[in-house]
Amino acid sequence: MSGDNGSVANQDPAVTTAEEVATDNTNVLNLIPGISIADIAKSGLAVLREGLLQPSIGLEHAARLTQENIRILFGKSELAPDPKDRRCVHSAFAEQPIYRRVPQGWLALQNSLQGRSDDISTKGQDRSGYLLISQ
To answer: Contact at 8 Å (CB) between 37 and 29?
Structure first.
């Protein structure tokens, strides 16, 4: 026993437990390696700024996204993940309606954000902040 708390200390420094490794290598504040919180905040502010400056573009894409989500809800959507997308290869995504709707909803959101980004860039705006969100 070591210390006053009654825990057993690891006598061999070369041997580490999974708990020790997990506590030494946490990425609590940065869940996505390679993308900083500042990048995410910058992208969010860019989306907010453009939404305030050009609300018609945002409303148009929100309406399209809502229409597509309604089609997805009723099973009428034509959206389908790329056959090479390994996230959706399980048979449940083809056989179960609820699981088929999950990637369709994600694709609808991704297409909406990409379309909004393209519309903003055609108006002479920088779209680099949107690329982080739409990918």
So the answer is: yes
